[in-house]
């Protein structure tokens, strides 16, 4: 059960659960409520858990500024995303995405267009998140009678990507940029057309995405574990390994971090598959 601490409006109350303050959102949830009254959690649409005092103020400002319909739209998008992506999203998305949707509509109505420089990367490297976001844009267009472009879907996808990280520490913009840099370097180095619909390409993209995630979360493979594979790859597939070394040099120069021989070897495995299946 939740205990009412303050009624903010008919749809929002500040509540307490086991010593933690929460923002509780639900149609009519605040109507005729009194301080210290108990609320059944089954009557609640969504619970927000503030991290600290500054977070509390931020949430209260959002609720005061943004109409409830935007929170409801976010709830609909998150429900769709969790179903399609088969994952639980971080609760913070209810704040960040709601704020974004409100701002996106405001920008549209004022004729302000902000280009997404990583639209192509998001669309191609995160197709599931992008597909959900296309539907989110359709929800927006139908609800507010506007014509937001598909490029806005990439902006929404950023929030879905970030919300899948357990600690929410990996920034989607930086992630997409690194993925794009690695993939483009490999494509350029192979110098032949790659079938981007092939299973080998999809496996390569998946490997790079997980590699970048580990890069940013400090979970890269250790040097000593891959020495034997590294030697074998140089013996069997030197061309693929040369490209792997180019990626290693690129990351060292751009991010001031050297990846291990084991990481290079596994990149080489996927690069070799691409080289053998390119046309």
UniProtKB/TrEMBL annotation:
SUPFAM superfamilies: PTS-regulatory domain, PRD, SacY-like RNA-binding domain. Residues 65-170, 171-279 form the PRD domain. Keywords: Repeat. GO terms for biological process: regulation of DNA-templated transcription. PROSITE patterns: PRD_2. GO terms for molecular function: RNA binding. Pfam families: CAT_RBD, PRD. InterPro entries: BglG_antiterminators, CAT_RNA-bd_dom, CAT_RNA-bd_dom_sf, PRD, PRD_sf. This is Beta-glucoside operon transcriptional antiterminator. It comes from Tetragenococcus halophilus (strain DSM 20338 / JCM 20259 / NCIMB 9735 / NBRC 12172) (Pediococcus halophilus). The gene is bglG.
């Amino acid at each position: 059960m939740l205990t009412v601490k303050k009624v903010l409006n008919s749809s929002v109350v500040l509540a307490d659960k086991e010593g933690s303050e929460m923002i509780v959102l639900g149609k009519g949830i605040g109507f005729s409520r009194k301080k210290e009254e108990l609320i059944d959690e089954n009557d609640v649409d969504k619970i927000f858990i503030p991290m600290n005092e500054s977070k509390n103020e931020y949430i209260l400002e959002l609720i005061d500024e943004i109409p409830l319909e935007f929170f409801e739209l976010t709830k609909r998008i998150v429900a769709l995303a969790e179903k399609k992506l088969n994952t639980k999203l971080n609760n913070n998305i209810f704040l960040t995405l709601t704020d974004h949707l409100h701002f996106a509509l405001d920008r549209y109505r004022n004729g302000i267009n902000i280009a997404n420089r990583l639209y192509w990367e998001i669309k191609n490297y995160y197709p599931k998140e992008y597909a959900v976001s296309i539907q989110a844009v359709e929800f927006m267009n139908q609800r507010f009678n506007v014509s937001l472009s598909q490029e806005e879907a990439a902006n929404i996808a950023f929030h879905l990507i970030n919300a899948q990280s357990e600690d929410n520490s990996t920034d989607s913009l930086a992630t997409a940029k690194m993925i794009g840099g690695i993939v483009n370097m490999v494509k350029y180095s192979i110098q032949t057309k790659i079938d981007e619909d092939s299973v080998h390409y999809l496996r390569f993209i998946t490997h790079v995405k997980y590699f970048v995630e580990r890069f940013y979360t400090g979970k890269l493979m250790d040097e000593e574990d891959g020495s034997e594979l590294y030697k074998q790859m140089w013996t069997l597939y030197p061309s693929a390994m040369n490209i792997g070394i180019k990626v290693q040099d690129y990351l060292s120069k751009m991010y001031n971090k050297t990846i291990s021989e084991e990481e290079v070897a596994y990149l080489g495995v996927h690069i070799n598959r691409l080289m053998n299946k390119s046309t």
